[in-house]
Write a structure and sequence with these properties.
two-stranded antiparallel sheet; 2 domains; mainly alpha; 11 helices
Length: 283
């Protein structure tokens, strides 16, 4: 092992010099390319096991086995970069302490409440109905969905509002860093679903902007952003999985959300805007 470390040391030093001197966008591109490079062999094996081929739409039960290794690789790569002296989890706002936990709980509650307000308004307006007969399905997903929501929220916030924002603000003003990171955040959702994601792009971009705001409201910590993200994912996934909501069709789906996706409609955008306003005024 000492011999291996000695042999690898010159390469590590060269890589460190490159990362420190390279433009920030090059560092960002290097991270995403290396992330995909590490994930592809795993993804190919999983795709073969699932009998999935490129061009075929992914079913929810096929998507999760592909997502989990992708998401688990990201913090390992960022940890490897930090060992080279390129940032750290603390620099990215990911700190494990009581303050982060309290911010996480606040963000989670705010995310769920903001969605509850928007859906309550839709119920009152007669735009959607609650399927009470499906309430029992919530219990079957009581544990897995919150765990997945917390994992997705943690990894995506670490990458997009943590690593990406921290790197971009070294060379760009905060507002431009927020715009760039949110564009990347929105566009990368096209990797999994194109037809359903395209109408969501404006909403996803706005969501990214609000999550950047959440980080800075939290003093650079990712707690509130993580909680918000996890709360939204948990609430939407629970509604979809248990099929608790049906739309009446009284108004255009561009109001309620095209393809039943809230961020693809004005209601979802209003939810995100409402959350941003609350963060701006009350915190």
């Amino acid at each position: 092992m000492p011999i291996l470390i000695t042999l690898l040391q010159p390469s590590a030093n060269t890589l460190l010099v490159f990362l420190q001197d390279a433009p920030v966008l090059v560092v960002v591109m290097a991270f995403f390319m290396f992330w995909v490079f590490c994930w592809l062999p795993i993804a190919i094996v999983i795709a073969i096991a699932l009998k999935w081929k490129p061009g075929k739409s992914l079913q929810p039960e096929q998507k999760l086995p592909l997502l989990i290794p992708l998401y688990l690789l990201a913090p390992l790569i960022l940890w490897g970069m930090s060992s080279l002296g390129v940032g750290s989890f603390a620099d990215y706002g990911f700190v494990v302490n009581f303050s982060t936990l309290s911010s996480l709980l606040f963000g989670f509650a705010l995310g769920v409440i903001s969605l509850a307000i928007v859906f309550a308004l839709q119920f009152l307006l007669g735009w959607c109905q609650w399927q009470t007969e499906n309430n029992k399905l919530v219990l079957a997903n009581l544990l897995p969905i919150p765990l997945i929501a917390l994992l997705v929220g943690a990894i995506e916030e670490l990458i997009f509002r943590g690593f990406l924002i921290t790197e971009l603000t070294q060379q760009y003003p905060v507002w431009l860093a927020a715009v760039i990171s949110s564009v990347i955040f929105a566009l990368l959702h096209l990797v999994w679903e194109q037809k359903e994601t395209i109408p969501q792009l404006p909403g996803l971009w706005l969501m990214g902007i609000v999550l950047v705001l959440a980080r800075f409201v939290d003093g650079g910590n990712l707690g509130i952003a993580w909680g918000l993200h996890a709360g939204w994912v948990w609430a939407i996934a629970t509604l979809d999985t248990a099929e608790l909501i049906t739309y009446t069709g009284k108004v255009s789906e561009w109001l309620t959300g095209k393809n039943k996706k809230p961020l693809a409609g004005l209601a979802g955008i209003f939810c995100v805007l409402l959350t941003g306003i609350i963060l701006w005024i009350f915190t």
